[in-house]
Protein backbone atom coordinates (compact mmCIF):
# COMPACT_ATOMS: atom_id res chain seq x y z
CA UNK A 1 0.00 0.00 0.00
CA UNK A 2 1.47 3.42 -0.93
CA UNK A 3 2.44 5.72 1.88
CA UNK A 4 1.02 9.17 2.19
CA UNK A 5 3.54 11.93 1.53
CA UNK A 6 5.54 12.79 4.61
CA UNK A 7 5.36 16.24 6.11
CA UNK A 8 9.02 16.66 5.11
CA UNK A 9 8.16 16.12 1.43
CA UNK A 10 5.30 18.60 1.73
CA UNK A 11 7.59 21.17 3.34
CA UNK A 12 10.20 20.63 0.62
CA UNK A 13 7.57 21.05 -2.08
CA UNK A 14 6.38 24.31 -0.51
CA UNK A 15 9.93 25.64 -0.36
CA UNK A 16 10.47 24.81 -4.02
CA UNK A 17 7.15 26.41 -4.98
CA UNK A 18 8.00 29.56 -3.05
CA UNK A 19 11.45 29.82 -4.61
CA UNK A 20 9.95 29.36 -8.08
CA UNK A 21 7.32 32.02 -7.37
CA UNK A 22 10.06 34.42 -6.29
CA UNK A 23 11.90 33.77 -9.56
CA UNK A 24 8.72 34.40 -11.57
CA UNK A 25 8.27 37.78 -9.87
CA UNK A 26 11.93 38.75 -10.34
CA UNK A 27 12.00 37.73 -14.00
CA UNK A 28 8.67 39.50 -14.67
CA UNK A 29 9.99 42.77 -13.23
CA UNK A 30 13.24 42.32 -15.14
CA UNK A 31 11.42 41.66 -18.43
CA UNK A 32 9.10 44.62 -17.88
CA UNK A 33 12.12 46.89 -17.44
CA UNK A 34 13.51 45.81 -20.83
CA UNK A 35 10.49 46.63 -23.02
CA UNK A 36 9.90 49.95 -24.79
CA UNK A 37 7.98 52.74 -23.08
CA UNK A 38 4.95 52.20 -25.32
CA UNK A 39 4.93 48.49 -24.49
CA UNK A 40 5.30 49.27 -20.77
CA UNK A 41 2.30 51.56 -21.03
CA UNK A 42 0.16 48.94 -22.80
CA UNK A 43 1.19 46.07 -20.51
CA UNK A 44 0.74 48.18 -17.39
CA UNK A 45 -2.75 49.24 -18.44
CA UNK A 46 -3.81 45.70 -19.32
CA UNK A 47 -2.24 43.65 -16.55
CA UNK A 48 -1.69 46.03 -13.63
CA UNK A 49 -4.43 48.62 -13.98
CA UNK A 50 -6.84 46.03 -15.47
CA UNK A 51 -7.95 48.15 -18.43
CA UNK A 52 -9.97 46.43 -21.11
CA UNK A 53 -8.47 46.42 -24.60
CA UNK A 54 -10.97 49.10 -25.62
CA UNK A 55 -10.03 51.34 -22.70
CA UNK A 56 -6.36 50.80 -23.49
CA UNK A 57 -6.37 51.69 -27.19
CA UNK A 58 -8.54 54.75 -26.56
CA UNK A 59 -6.28 55.92 -23.70
CA UNK A 60 -3.11 55.66 -25.78
CA UNK A 61 -4.72 57.16 -28.88
CA UNK A 62 -4.66 54.28 -31.37
CA UNK A 63 -7.35 53.04 -33.67
CA UNK A 64 -8.80 49.63 -32.82
CA UNK A 65 -7.28 47.91 -35.87
CA UNK A 66 -3.81 49.39 -35.35
CA UNK A 67 -3.91 48.43 -31.67
CA UNK A 68 -4.90 44.80 -32.28
CA UNK A 69 -2.73 44.32 -35.37
CA UNK A 70 0.46 46.02 -34.21
CA UNK A 71 0.60 47.72 -30.81
CA UNK A 72 -0.64 44.95 -28.49
CA UNK A 73 1.11 42.07 -30.32
CA UNK A 74 4.36 44.08 -30.31
CA UNK A 75 4.10 44.69 -26.55
CA UNK A 76 3.42 41.00 -25.86
CA UNK A 77 6.26 39.90 -28.12
CA UNK A 78 8.70 42.34 -26.51
CA UNK A 79 7.78 40.96 -23.10
CA UNK A 80 8.09 37.36 -24.29
CA UNK A 81 11.53 38.14 -25.73
CA UNK A 82 12.69 39.70 -22.46
CA UNK A 83 11.24 37.09 -20.06
CA UNK A 84 14.04 34.61 -19.41
CA UNK A 85 12.51 32.05 -17.04
CA UNK A 86 10.26 30.30 -19.58
CA UNK A 87 9.66 30.56 -23.30
CA UNK A 88 6.42 32.53 -23.61
CA UNK A 89 6.38 32.55 -27.41
CA UNK A 90 3.64 30.79 -29.35
CA UNK A 91 4.95 29.13 -32.48
CA UNK A 92 2.96 28.51 -35.64
CA UNK A 93 3.35 25.23 -37.45
CA UNK A 94 4.87 25.56 -40.88
CA UNK A 95 2.34 25.12 -43.66
CA UNK A 96 4.71 23.08 -45.82
CA UNK A 97 5.79 20.63 -43.10
CA UNK A 98 4.55 17.08 -43.43
CA UNK A 99 3.16 15.05 -40.59
CA UNK A 100 6.03 12.60 -40.95
CA UNK A 101 8.29 15.10 -39.19
CA UNK A 102 10.70 15.32 -42.12
TrEMBL record:
- The name this protein carries in UniProt is Phage regulatory protein
Question: Superkingdom of the source?
Answer: Bacteria
InterPro entries under this entry?
ArpU-like (IPR006524)
Amino acid sequence: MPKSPSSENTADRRIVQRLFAEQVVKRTIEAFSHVSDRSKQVLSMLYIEEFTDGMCYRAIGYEKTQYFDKVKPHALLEFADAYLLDDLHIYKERQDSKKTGV
